[in-house]
């Protein structure tokens, strides 16, 4: 299955449908901010009125989003059914061309009419349309097919809103239509591989919205109930689904003792089934009562639920598994699908779209096994047990009374006790499902007599309901849904199998987080851990549940109580520890997973089988490894043990790999906290406002070296260095941020007090501010500890370790960067969340700092590593101690400068690697871990950048631009310093200096300060004229020079196409050089240095560049026109001149528009405040409202979009 193509199509299709439907609404006179009374369109007025009313009620964007999804899912559903031959040839929806559609439907017109049950008038209308409007004909037939399939799959095809039919996608036969692209973009074979493609399409379709939700989290925007589905969509790899289904259902089938089922044969056919450490029979001999057995032994009694069913992936595989069991038990093949749906499978989700897809997927499975299934469903609908969790918020007390009274009236006799019981049950359901979309299937619903409730409802349905008004019919349907979902939620199941949502409590809204704290105090920290308790509640006693979750619950101290509870009350039968990259999609390395099978009943001294797949690089490799381990019974990746014993260790974590030696070290040695003070830093509550990258603000306002709170106050500076964690890096570095701590953090504290009443809730450990310390990244792939000099405040994500005695700082830094410390941390917590509590508990050998010889060795090695790492960090311009580029060697050839740099970096790399190995050796021997750890280090574990010619040349270009703007002193003596007087002085010395703070970038050399011209002038002056051409060639070859290009052409192409992208990436979307950009035709670009911005700068750009360039382009176009009309010029050159003229005319048009917007912005004389940060200031020049030549309002950007 080509997931890249599927992803690309789904993302494109969503955006395309949203765009097209917005256009259709506008044609109907329905706009985001207004609805016209008059409109000119041939559609039923009632449909348009209904649509307008819905837009006013729910909002424009929500209606557009819904319509886009409805047609997306209908179209891919038809495509799936068509390719798999689940519908007849006459129902075909996809055609290579308009002509093939016409031929096909002329051929099958009679059959189509019969299939769709058309009357004579409708048949005539269809035939008439053949000669008039094929697109309308196609739409008509597609709508009629949807109506037909509404009888089979109402969740997908039923129109609860009639207006949905008028929002059907337009321009069906265009090359860029969704139907045409679905044919060309996704291989038919992908649809034939199974219904799981529908789930993948849905996940990708929702990925834009998911990104929006998580971007909002970064801005401290909590996840609302409307956004939970988007935030939690994650398609489980098929092999992990099979592992969970096979390992739970084989055991369930065995426990039910179903006749004619040979369990040994069943196990053999399962690819991922894992036997218990002891055979089940041996366990049963010891504890006869542990197994729940069903007396009847009937497969129809087995109940399986996925309480977070998503698009039904788990239930689909459970369907396949059960089908084979039914077959072996002697059931007739065609009857099995209905039996499975009505008796065995249950599903819940808060996302109605996901439930729709899950239902569709299961119906496709039924059709796969029974050719007549669709026909059978039309005559007798299947009672499926899949529910979207519905809310009761809009059911009033009056409506409940009305409903109960209607029930009483429907009876032929009066029974006050039963009537009161009915009332209380209905009131309970209405109450428990208030705000149910917030909570979903974590709601704990008591077990009412749902059979009696349904019987009562049926009585009402036959006697009273037919006379109800429409509103009362709707009320009846709402309450019926509450009863159905209540019955499923209160039920007990033989197998609970799910991949729950992963959402930490910090990202949840107040209502949901409060509910978790009150109802799930042990597991409240994340939704996945809450579901570990929920699944336990749903599972019958001694039955099974299977889950895939993040593995943090195995290790974090916050989950200790949950671990203890689960291990006390049940048994983990087996676990596959997946680690990072378990999902086929890239969800990063931060999410590390485990899948497990849990028995809801405890066998004492039960030994759990755990398989370690954490070392495998991706999902496919993990699957292969599991299969190979099944064959190799002696694999070192298999651990077998009693988890109760692990809970008796100091760490109380499920560190199944831990040796007796390590357990002894934990119990006998003092913890790190005995000599250090690990501290968690502050949370500003608004990083966007209070934190800036150091290069955003005025350097003169930063105090880099405050020694104390008093020193900071005396300085009267506004900004101070701030440890915020950053990427995995050891020894030194990641010094990128500053915090507004003016007047002892007055603004930050006032804001925190406003939010939380007291600022001390988020601003902690002030006594440790500005002190020398060690710092590390809270969330990281590995434990990267760095030396931090005086002057820093520290963040919650850049937690720090402080010392009473700074003499120990290097020793502990060396230890924490060693393999030994990593092993201890992994034992306590191998997640990417490095907790202060875990750090405190690392066992410490006192000899490392009490034995003088050992301490001196460690001190020297660590000091050297800090120096090397600092040197490397400061060689890049992202460092505030950067002075000069390593290739900036006056009078030298660049090739030679690079060789010197390359050799220097190689020596430093090898030195730091060798030092780390020596430190590993010291600590391994000190702790007696020679049999468990090796001192050797892999190159990729050394956080030191080797020389790279392409990177170095690009950064040299950036450095030269900095020199041209006056950001850097070209001699590298006084780096960030050029003020107005020095600008004047530099400007008189060098041809290359940008005295006016503007560097134009164009396709040819139109100006004397053209970027390539002044860049070449710099290279000539600095490196020597005699080396000029060789140096330019070196730069060009590093930038991937194309055949036939000169070095200057390569450099010009780089400045036009790539330089700004690289700059934006280096500065993390906070560029210090701003690019004025006229648009896609590259008519005009120019760089300015934002620290030298002045309000009249746009005026200078217009007068000195834009107006002149338009004139130059017009002159060039005139010259080319003479060439085109000249008989002397050969055909090839005339052809070239025509293309060039076309481009220039486009550039002229682009520049005139751009000049208009520049004039408009120039009139505002925008002032920027550097303390507000780059993004805030940058946005002042973006999204400018203008009226275009057609009189329509459009948004335009003055600067390049970032």
Automatic annotation (TrEMBL):
- Which processes are annotated in GO (biological process)? DNA modification; methylation
GO terms (molecular function) for this protein are:
nucleic acid binding; site-specific DNA-methyltransferase (adenine-specific) activity
Enzyme Commission designation: 2.1.1.72
Q: Known PROSITE patterns for this protein? A: N6_MTASE
Reactions performed catalytically: a 2'-deoxyadenosine in DNA + S-adenosyl-L-methionine = an N(6)-methyl-2'-deoxyadenosine in DNA + S-adenosyl-L-homocysteine + H(+)
- InterPro entries named in the record: BREX_1_PglX, DNA_methylase_N6_adenine_CS, MethylTrfase_TaqI-like_dom, N4_N6_ade-DNA_methylase, SAM-dependent_MTases_sf
Q: What are the record keywords, sorted?
A: Methyltransferase, S-adenosyl-L-methionine, Transferase
Domain Type II methyltransferase M.TaqI-like, by residue range, is 343-580
Q: What class of enzyme is it?
A: transferase
What's the short name of a Pfam family annotated to this entry?
Answer: Eco57I
What NCBIfam families is this protein classified in? BREX_1_MTaseX
Q: What is this protein called?
A: site-specific DNA-methyltransferase (adenine-specific)
Which species is the source of this protein?
Clostridium cadaveris
**What gene is this protein a product of?**
pglX
